[in-house]
Amino acid sequence: MGGHVIMTEAKEILNRGMEQGLERGLEQGRKEKIRIFVDLVNDRVLSLEEAAKRAGMTVDEFKNHIEELD
Fold first, then answer.
1. Following DSSP, what letter does each residue of 21-65 receive, concatenated?
2. Which long-range contacts (CB under 8 A, 24 or more apart) does 42-48 make?
3. Are 17 and 38 in contact (CB under 8 A)?
4. Which pLDDT tens digit goes with each residue over 15-35?
């Protein structure tokens, strides 16, 4: 019985670690996508409004990201 409990706990720890890693990876990907949109706005390839729309945020939210990256 003790081995089964240890294996169950190990699986739970592994699953939590995988979920946290996935969440971090998704967040990093989202930040990179926003950075690319900010670069496109700075290069005047996309309008501020279009970049915000493509990033799934309001213009004000997008402006905040521009300020964070500058």
1. HHHHHHHHHHHHHHHHHHHHHHTTSS-HHHHHHHHTS-HHHHHHH
2. 42/66
3. no
4. 888 999 999 999 999 999 999
In Å, how far are 5, 28, 30 from 24, measured between CA atoms?
29, 6, 10
Burial label, 27 (beta-carbon count in 10 A; 0-12, 13-18, 19+): exposed
Task: Tell me which residue has tokens 């670069």.
Answer: 39
DSSP type of residue 67: H
Distance (Å, whole) CA 20 – CA 12: 12
Place of tokens 């998704």: 26
Which amino acid would we find at residue 46?
L
Please give the model's pTM, rounded to 2 decimal places.
Answer: 0.71
